[in-house]
Design a protein that fits this description.
Elements (H helix, E strand, L loop, with lengths): L1 H17 L3 E5 L2 E5 L4 E5 L5 E6 L5 E6 L14 H5 L1 E6 L8 E7 L8 E7 L5 E7 L5 H9 L2 E4 L1
Antiparallel strand pairs: 1-2, 2-10, 3-4, 4-5, 5-9, 6-7, 7-8, 8-9
Amino acid sequence: MNRMKLVTLLALLIPLAAQADVVIQIEQLTITMPDGYRHFEKRGIDSAVGEIVTASGMKIGYDLGHFGGSSQRLQEMSKNELANVLYFEDNPSNAPTGFILVSRLPGDPLRPPVYAVVISLGKGVGSFGLLVTDAAKLVEARKALEALRITKK
């Protein structure tokens, strides 16, 4: 009986030990990524740019710095831009400020649509985002962004 309890306890603890968040510092931000996400820095001219790859292979690009990000809100968008918005969340819980936006990008009507999934931290701070060509992956893309926990130093 004691052996059974030990086996059960080990079965519960081993998955917990294997899942560890990864913390990285980029510019003025601390980003906590789930286990399985990988970070790749790239070279930017006037900002910090790079890519975070999720465990499932989705690529989240980022551009952080003085010229990164957007402060545009729904009320500031044109009618054409609003027509392409699929999801908008102001002040998401995983970031200190900003918004999450999912929208269809304008393009050639003869080609498959491209969707942008972006978390903007505000003008002068930066943004994280990915492009998706399969509408069925939009929820997965949004969840991949929401899995990043972003805080200011």
